[in-house]
Each structure stands twice: as structure tokens, then as C-alpha cells.
Design a protein that fits this description.
Blueprint lengths: L5 H4 L4 E3 L4 H8 L6 E2 L15 H20 L8 E11 L2 E3 L5 H11 L6 E11 L2 E13 L4 H9 L20 E5 L2 H5 L3 H13 L7
Parallel strand pairs: 1-2, 1-3
Antiparallel strand pairs: 3-4, 3-5, 5-6, 6-7
Organism: Callosobruchus maculatus
Protein name: Maf-like protein
Keywords: Hydrolase
């Protein structure tokens, strides 16, 4: 998807401002050369004061800016920095990473008790030539109804911890997901197709986005 831009991109210093192993693995699958520099940004935005898209985009920008400020005086300055944030929304409520097992249990119970989907929002911010470009990708995930013993068994695996919405679509959670509408990679944490299109548009200036 990044061809024929890949050779040009691989001559640049590209930074992924994330410690997520899933995001790193997804980006590596494109053969793009990049460095991982985890952000120390304090994620403290008030969800009540932002739309879902605005929340993830502003958080992604915060992560990006934190890493940029730490690297801007390097001899070899970054050419591109990518910041990413993912959250899950259901029934008008925002779900981030569970605080503990009880929070994880409550989250999964909420998400699996109706035929309605939860929506995964991933905000992506890209800094290139001192300009920040941003976008949000949304994917709807439908889940099979779980009873309390099944929810507790899932929580005890440890998979929900550290994941927005308390589940990992690439792991055990795939056994109770019935349908996905949209980019599956977005649920994992990085919408590769949209990111590729945006990088082409930003760097080449001649590729239209899908939005």
C-alpha cells in the first residue's frame, strides 16, 4: 500500500510515539523503517468535554508533541512522528483501559449484554514539516452475549488489562466477536490503510484521503 513511496519514507527518520507492541507489529508489517519512542504524555483530558473523535485526536497530538519536544534538538531530527490513541465507545459512554479486574469485568459485561455494537475510535496525528495532520478511524464491533462466569474467566486471563475497552481482538476476545464493520487493524490499535493513504497524501500531496 505504501509502494512506491516506501523507498522515500525509509530514507527519513520516522518515530512511532507509542509503546504498544500491537501497533509496532502492525506498522512493521508494512516494511516501513521506524523507531519506537514511547510517550510520557499524561492522558488527563475530560471525556465529558470532548466528542469521541476530538478526544482521541487531541490525546494522539499530546503524545506526539511530548515525543517531539524530547527529540527536536537531536542532531538528526525526526522527519515524521506518529501519535496514536484508541478508545471504545458504547451507549454514549467512553471506555479506556480498565483500572483493575473489577473495572475490566464491568466493561466487558457492558459491551456483551446487547446486540448493539461498540465503536472503536482511533485518533492518529502525524507531524511532518512542522505541520500536524490528524484523523479518526471508527470500527464497529459486535459481540456475543457472555454470562458472568465467562466474563470472569476472560478477565482472569489478563488479556483485558492495558487495552482500550478491555479486550484484545487479536487474542481470546476473537472467540466472542460475531462481526466487525470496518478496519480490523483499527480495533487492534492502528488503522493501516488510512494511515498509508494519509502518509501518501502528506508526503506526495497527490493522493486523496478516503474521508
Amino acid at each position: 500500500m505504501l509502494e512506491p513511496l516506501l523507498s522515500q519514507l525509509n530514507e527519513m527518520r520516522i518515530i512511532l510515539a507509542s509503546s504498544s507492541k500491537q501497533r509496532s507489529a502492525l506498522l512493521s508489517s508494512t516494511n516501513l523503517k521506524f523507531e519506537i519512542v514511547p510517550s510520557n504524555y499524561e492522558e488527563n483530558l475530560d471525556p465529558q468535554k470532548h466528542t469521541f473523535s476530538d478526544f482521541v485526536e487531541k490525546t494522539a497530538i499530546g503524545k506526539l508533541n511530548d515525543v517531539y519536544n524530547r527529540l527536536k534538538n537531536d542532531v538528526l531530527k525526526p522527519d515524521i512522528i506518529i501519535g496514536v490513541d484508541t478508545m471504545v465507545a458504547y451507549n454514549g459512554r467512553m471506555y479506556g483501559k480498565p483500572k483493575d479486574k473489577n473495572d475490566a469485568f464491568q466493561t466487558i459485561r457492558d459491551l456483551t449484554q446487547s446486540n448493539l455494537p461498540n465503536s472503536v475510535y482511533t485518533g492518529v496525528a502525524i507531524r511532518y514539516k512542522d505541520i500536524i495532520h490528524k484523523f479518526t478511524e471508527v470500527t464497529n464491533v459486535y459481540m456475543h452475549k457472555l454470562d458472568e462466569s465467562e466474563i470472569m474467566a476472560y478477565v482472569e486471563t489478563g488479556e483485558p488489562m492495558g487495552k482500550a475497552g478491555g479486550y484484545g481482538i487479536q487474542g481470546i476476545a476473537s472467540t466472542f466477536v460475531t462481526r466487525i464493520d470496518g478496519d480490523c487493524n483499527n480495533v487492534i490499535g492502528l488503522p493501516l490503510c488510512r494511515l498509508s493513504l494519509e502518509l501518501k497524501r502528506i508526503v506526495c500531496g497527490n493522493i486523496a484521503t478516503s474521508r
